[in-house]
Structure formats: structure tokens, C-alpha cells
Amino acid sequence: MTAEDNRAIRVEVSDSLAPATGVIVNRLTRLFDLGADPAAIDSHLASNGLRANVERMPGVRVPGAFDGFELAIRAVLGQQVTVKGASTLMTRLTEAFGEPVSADDPRLTYLTPTAERLASSSITAIREIGLPNARAATIHALATHVATRGIDLEPNAELQSDVGALRANLLALPGFGPWTADYIAMRVAHWTDAFPASDVALRHALGDVSPREIARIAAKWSPWRAYAAMRLWLYGDTGGN
């Protein structure tokens, strides 16, 4: 939870999780993008057309992922559907393939399905949560490659340093286009220069221009284009400079 002044995060770890404290802290650091230098990033973006946006809300970070595979599955489920629709599909997938758990919090009833569990299931079974056959096949292919270590989605330094290979491996899967690959690279590998130029909301924020023109406009925000994208998603425009 956030501390009272909203400038820190206070984390409480149960005694049973004490042996995993180091892992938890590392994952939370990536989840909340605590390694970023907001002042340097904001300065660069403000100097390149996003000053009003930056002044509206300084210090915007790019959220990472506590679990890379879960984030990737959510990205696939979010293709061409609303956020609410994607959330409903994720709930169905978790209830169908996740492991039931008993916890003090009554809202925690299942663990997210593992790659191994989904890889061992059939495409037909995955489709039964309400997916088109092609989308179910995409999830199955992703799970299979992660389960067999063909694709590494563990948020770590090695993944961040080889984002090109991650994108290439994702784009080789059926049903994966640049938007999904770039979104996963942004959130899982924490690629600071990720910018899904085909995103509808980004196109609208930049005047409904073509993806090629969006890429040209966004070039000046490099190497922090992921932070520019996050700002455009949050506020819907460049801030009216």
C-alpha cells in the first residue's frame, strides 16, 4: 500500500513469506518502476512537446509486472476487446485452469493458471471460456513456449537486456502483432523505448494520424517513449503545448 504522503510504498509481508522477501521486493520494485529517474525522464519529455502534460502530473512511471506470464496472457485476452471484457475473460480462464486456494482474504480464491497447466490443456478447452479459436490457439502457443523455456517472461535484468530477442520470439507466435509484443516488452521487460504505434488510443491522442506518422512524432521522445505512451494513455493528449 502507499504511504500517507504518497511518495513511498509500504509493504507488509506475512511471516510465512519471510524467506521470499528478497524476491518479493525485487518484483515489487519492477512492478512499481521504482528504479526510474522521473526527473530526468520528465525533463526530456517536457523539452520535446509534452511540457503541459508533464506539468499536469509530474513523475508518471510505467507499471511493470509481478508475473510476466500473467501479464502476457492479459495482453492477449485484451486484443480487440474492452478492458472490462478482458477482465471477464481472465476471470473465466483463472477459474477454469487456475489452482484453487484458501486464504484469509475471501477475494483470493484461485491462482493464475501456470504456463504448464495451459500448455497441457487443449485449444478446445481454452476456447470454452468464450474465445475465438484463433485467440485460444495464441494462448496455447504462448503457454507452450513459456513452459518449454522457449520464451522467458520472468521480469529480470537478462530479459531487459535482450528485448529484441523477446519481441522476435513473440512475433513468431500465431496471433501476435507489434502492439501485443511491444506492450509485453514495455510491461514485462521494462523496455523504456517501447511505443505501440498502432494503438487506437495513441492514434487518437496524436490526432488520428497513421501509425507511420505516429512513429515519426514519437521519435523525439526516445529513449523514453514508453513513458510518453503512458502519459498519452492517462490524459488522452499531449497536454496542449
Task: Describe the fold and architecture.
This protein has 241 residues and is mostly helical. The chain folds into two domains: 37-62 and 192-241, Endonuclease Iii, domain 2 (Orthogonal Bundle), CATH 1.10.1670.40; 68-187, Endonuclease III, domain 1, CATH 1.10.340.30. Helix content is 54%, strand content 0%. The protein contains 13 helices and no strands. The protein has helices at 21-31, 38-56, 68-77, 83-97, 115-119, 123-127, 133-147, 157-161, 163-171, 178-187, 200-205, 211-218, 225-235.
- How many individual β-strands? 0
Run of helices and strands? HHHHHHHHHHHHH
CATH class of the largest domain: Mainly Alpha
Rg from alpha-carbon coordinates: 19 Å
**What structural class is derived from the secondary structure elements?**
mainly alpha
Question: What fold name goes in the CATH topology slot of the largest domain?
Answer: Endonuclease III, domain 1
Instruction: Report low-confidence residues grouped into runs of 5 or more.
Output: none
Q: How many angstroms separate the termini?
A: 34 Å
Helix content: 40-55%
